Amino acid sequence: MLMVIGCAPGQKKPVGNIPSMNVMLVTNSSNISTMTLTPSPIPTRSLSPTVTKTQIPTASSTQIPTATPTPQTIVIQCAAPVVADLNNLDMDGILVVDENADQDLHSNQYFLNLRTHQRYPLNEISNHWLRNFEVSPDSRYIAYLDGNRYDENDVYYVVRESGGKIIARQLAEKNWYGIVGWQDNQHILINLEKRRDGYIDLPLTMVRWNPFNGNKEELLPDFPGIDYIIDGVPNWGGYVFAPTVYDPTMQFVVYPWVQDGKSMISLWSLKSKKVIVEIENTYGSYGNQPTWSLDGKTFLINLAKEENKEELYQLSVDGQMKRLTKLSQQFSEIGFGGYSWSPNGQQVAFWARTVPDTWREAGDELRSRTPMRLAVLDLNTSEIRSFCLPGEGWGKSIQGTYYTGSNLLWSPNGRQIAVEKGTPGQGAYLIIIDLESNKAWRFAANSAALGWLTDRP
Q1: What Cα–Cα distance (Å) separates residue 191 from each residue in 187, 188, 207, 251?
Q2: Beta strands 291-292 and 32-36: pairing type?
Q3: Is 127 a member of any domain?
Q4: Pairwise CA distance, residues 28 & 79, whole Å
Q5: Residue 405 domain-assigned?
């Protein structure tokens, strides 16, 4: 294992049996300390075969690989963000900023062009709130909910382009329950509540809405074994109550199920109507939200073969599994927060919690609960760069009960990442890290980035 070091970890009490490390001192930027160590009813589309809903797939499950991999290089670059003004940045794209992010209904959202420094508000109605922001995969559009603070039935689903033009403004239909996310660049997935005997029927059905032509269709969660998932799937973001994660081409879906008390995850072919691969997550329930690549050929998921030792894996649509991280070799405990593909698909940004907490900032006191830290994995070299920045590892809540994203925003050109450091109301502020210059900027407290849109055609 090779680690590049420039800031002291300052660990007070080592935990677990950690292998010895070779250390090589290097120099770096003054801003970064471096260390190597429409009309109803909606058409219904059934995407599964005609089977008894409680039927369990019988194909043999795939075990998480156990082979000991070659240790990977970790470069620790503890960022010391410089206080700056957003209006002084010269970057590509349009940042969607939320001021007073900890005040929810009383926050202020606006577009900020990082090249011209022009800003314009999203919310132009004083008694309305905005929430549940989701950016399209191509970074051209942003979707969100626009609601009347005094009328719970006056809620709209809005889509705007990066220049601010409103593409669609759809009044919420009966039982619509928030945006799950963009399924591709043309369709938005929406939670749909259905009731049986007076109770909400879980898992939820989803509505696939095309805001450009108004078409809608229901996607039924009718897959073998999924009816056992009746309490939601923690850490699956907007999919927590509708845990069917479709790929951008609508040919495959990833979903959780239970077999003999075991947490299983299946990759299902919508065309052939059969399971491609089944994975038993030995420890760690169902991991975090599976995240598809833009081309729909692979997805990311964190799994654990040993207790408290998670790793990040990449699964292809033909069922092949590739282990991307080998951190359990170097830490007694490792857990993942959200993760996000870079625009070109060559890097993955993620939040991770390690024991011991050697990724922490110099001078940052140890906490009773180790925070998540920001890191970036290069898929070509397998090198991991940790920036030490602590965060919750998740996005903002839709209804105050579950998380909607990983709170990792890539710039459209893939050169920067925007994150929220800390917890809203407790000194949180917006951080932008430039991956090429190794510089970081800190902005106003209790501000967050809700999306990063392209400013180019």
Answers
A1: 13, 10, 6, 20
A2: unpaired
A3: yes
A4: 11
A5: yes
Say how far apart CA 282 and CA 271 lie, in whole Å: 29
Q: 256: domain range?
A: 2-37+39-363+373-384+392-453
In a domain, 90, yes or no: yes
| pLDDT given at position 98 | 85
Closest among 113, 138, 142, 92 to 413, alpha carbons compared: 92
**Over the stretch 284-333, which tens digit does the pLDDT of each residue have?**
688 889 999 999 999 999 999 888 899 999 999 999 999 999 998 888 88
Six token digits for residue 357:
């907490």
- Which residues are within 8 A (CB) of 200 and not within 5 positions of it... i.e. 6 or more apart? 193, 194
Least confident of 42-56, 112-126, 328-342: 42-56
More confident: 22 or 406: 406
Q: What is the mean pLDDT of residues 21-31?
A: 29
Q: Report, as an integer, the average pLDDT of 240-263.
A: 92
pLDDT at 31 over 90: no
Domain count for the chain: 1
Look up residue 138 and give its amino acid: D
CA distance 215 to 456: 27
Between 26 and 291, name the one with better pLDDT: 291
Report d(CA 168, CA 308) in Å as an integer.
45
CA 180 to chain centre: 12
Pairing between β-strand 216-219 and β-strand 44-45 as defined by DSSP bridges? parallel
Instruction: Assess if residue 368 is contained within a domain.
Output: no
- Contact assessment for residue 245 and residue 42, using Cβ atoms and an 8 Å cutoff: no
Cα 437–chain centre separation? 25
User: Domain containing 83 — which CATH number?
Assistant: 2.130.10.120
CB 97 within 8 A of CB 85: no
Separation CA 172–CA 158 (nearest Å): 10
